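[Q] Does anyone have a clean structure-token version of this?
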Amino acid sequence: MEAAERLVKVLKSRNYKISGAESCTGGKVAAALTSVSGVSAFFEESFVVYSERTKIKNIGVRSEIIEKFGVVSQECAAEMAEKTAEKTGADVAFGVTGIAGPTGATPGKPVGMVCFGVSFHGKTESTFRYFSGSRESVREQAVEFLLNWMAGLLEA
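[A] Here you go.
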């Protein structure tokens, strides 16, 4: 995967360690990263925290964030990234949460909405995108977007 190779190249050039927390992608970001030879020097760990309970219990997302904004929100994705960075000590941490479909849409949050957070060196960025297609297509597009977005943030 070209996007994973791009991100690993940036991590290597900066000697950054990376960890993550994934929900709707179910470990696909970790799988993409670990498909790149030599990534073991930079990839620490990734948590698959699919339920609200595991987001709170395993990485420390505050229940207030989920209650106020929902699990599919930029705020939750940002908190996932921040808490993962705190928990692992990684230089870069990511969070991804969304609705891959075909069910699960709620008012204002359609199928295909995916939220992303990246925490690095004390600052956190978040964004969201809408993807279309099958469940698998939404998940693949989310992985590709996140890897390229992180590389771009770290290259800047």
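[Q] Thanks! Anything notable?
[A] Residues 23 and 97 are 5 Å apart (CA to CA).
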